[in-house]
Design a protein that fits this description.
Layout (H helix, E strand, L loop, with lengths): L22 H9 L20 E8 L5 E8 L2 E9 L2 H10 L6 E2 L3 H10 L4
Antiparallel strand pairs: 1-2, 1-4, 2-3
């Protein structure tokens, strides 16, 4: 399966973003669906191989950035990424105690993204 190139333009996928999906739930839905009892009305386990979800995460392994992620039953792939501006990155890093990893975007970051892509 060919990988889609990572760009800084998230616009082609913005109408498909699930603003409430977090990475942990996506992993449960797509990659662990056979060995759990995850029965949420909003996030049911996938049952077909063509299903996917698109959602944002904050990647803090290096400089904080938002990554638009596509998850399916084969794993996740990054569709686009944008560096967080300092006025969002600094308070976010303080709020998570400087932990490195993949995190749920804060409400402020979600608002910034929605404003940037005119999808309020």
């Amino acid at each position: 399966m060919p990988k889609e190139p990572i760009t800084s333009d998230c616009k082609p996928w913005i109408n498909e973003v699930d603003w409430d999906l977090i990475h942990e739930d996506a992993v449960t839905m797509y990659l662990e669906w056979g060995n759990n009892n995850f029965m949420d009305v909003l996030r049911r386990p996938v049952t077909m191989s063509g299903e996917y979800s698109i959602y944002f995460v904050v990647d803090t392994w290096e400089e904080p950035k938002v990554v638009l992620t596509k998850m399916n039953n084969y794993g996740s792939s990054a569709l686009c990424e944008k560096r967080l501006p300092p006025e969002l990155a600094e308070p976010f890093m303080r709020s998570i105690g400087g932990l490195r990893g993949i995190h749920e975007p804060s409400p402020e970051i979600k608002d910034w993204l929605k404003t940037a892509y005119d999808c309020k």
